[in-house]
Amino acid sequence: IAGITQAPTSQILAAGRRMTLRCTQDMRHNAMYWYRQDLGLGLRLIHYSNTAGTTGKGEVPDGYSVSRANTDDFPLTLASAVPSQTSVYFCASSASADSAETQYFGPGTRLLVL
Amino acid sequence: GQNIDQPTEMTATEGAIVQINCTYQTSGFNGLFWYQQHAGEAPTFLSYNVLDGLEEKGRFSSFLSRSKGYSYLLLKELQMKDSASYLCAVRDSNYQLIWGAGTKLIIKP
């Protein structure tokens, strides 16, 4: 693989169910991010990790959790899905959290919560 | 609060030049990024500005004025494949990216 992969590509989920979105990168990047993208709004940061073993909350963290057990993987968990979590979720990574570093994005997961 | 403003939609003609503006109000400034996003796809990096002035990269150029909180992306010799959304993002004092809603660019033959 090259770059960032996300799974699943899309998912329909019943409200109240638990769901984990997977993200894996093979670029040995230290920093990773989860965003959601909704129509008419900019990308909004959910959670981030500047290095393996550390995580932080972004702009819209409620209802989501993350872990960063190793460099490559950064899963996002919805503990109990609600319809307002219907969105496109993008995982991204950068070599570091420094200002000049470009973020590279995965292909996204399209989630519909009913 | 933090705010990034871009026009929602623009239309241009194949072969022409288009300028997409971005104004920002953020807590701190540590660089401005432009990304391109085709429908149904992930954003991809176009340019980065941290100092005032123009950065040129092929058909695309990006300008920054930090004192005015203003940037623009200039696309020359437009091609049909340039039809996409263009996202402006500013890295704030916490080194997080704050994103605009994007400008949908429609190219007509």
Secondary-structure blueprint:
The complex is a heterodimer of chains A (114) and B (109).
Chain A: E1 4-7, E2 10-13, E3 19-25, E4 31-37, E5 44-49, E6 56-57, E7 64-66, E8 76-78, E9 87-94, E10 104-105, E11 109-113
Parallel strand pairs in A: 2-11
Antiparallel strand pairs in A: 1-3, 3-8, 4-5, 4-9, 5-6, 7-8, 9-10, 9-11
Chain B: E1 3-5, E2 9-13, E3 18-25, E4 32-37, E5 44-49, E6 53-57, E7 60-65, E8 70-75, E9 84-91, E10 97-99, E11 103-108
Parallel strand pairs in B: 2-11
Antiparallel strand pairs in B: 1-3, 3-8, 4-5, 4-9, 6-7, 7-8, 9-10, 9-11
Summarize the structure.
With 114 residues, chain A is an all-beta fold. Chain A contains no helices and eleven strands. Chain A is globular, with a radius of gyration of 13 Å.
How would you describe this protein?
The complex is a heterodimer of chains A (114) and B (109). By secondary structure, chain A is mostly beta strands. Chain A has strands at residues 4-7, 10-13, 19-25, 31-37, 44-49, 56-57, 64-66, 76-78, 87-94, 104-105, 109-113. In chain A, strands 2, 4, 5, 6, 9, 10 and 11 form a 7-stranded mixed sheet that branches. In chain A, strands 1-3-8-7 form a 4-stranded antiparallel sheet, with no helix packed on it. Chain B is built from no helices and 11 strands. In chain B, the strands form 2 sheets. In chain B, strands 2, 4, 5, 9, 10 and 11 form a 6-stranded mixed sheet that branches. A 5-stranded antiparallel sheet of chain B has the order 1-3-8-7-6, with no helix packed on it. In chain B, a hairpin with a 5-residue loop joins strand 9 and strand 10. The radius of gyration of chain B is 13 Å and the shape is globular. The model of chain B has no long low-confidence stretch (mean pLDDT 95).
Q: How many angstroms does the end-to-end distance of chain B come to?
A: 40 Å
- Succession of helices and strands of chain A: EEEEEEEEEEE
Largest sheet of chain B, in brief, is: 6 strands, mixed
Helix content of chain B: under 10%
Distance between the termini of chain A: 33 Å
Low-pLDDT sequence parts of chain A:
none
From the alpha carbons, calculate the radius of gyration of chain A and give it in angstroms. 13 Å
User: What is the H/E order of chain B?
Assistant: EEEEEEEEEEE
Helical element count of chain B? 0
Portion in strands of chain B: over 45%
The description of the largest β-sheet of chain A is: 7 strands, mixed
| Helix/strand class of chain B | mainly beta
Structural class by sheet pairing and helices of chain A: mainly beta
User: In total, how many beta strands of chain B?
Assistant: 11
Q: How much helix, percentage-wise, in residues of chain A? A: under 10%
Oligomeric description of these chains: heterodimer
Task: Estimate the strand proportion of chain A.
Answer: 35-45%
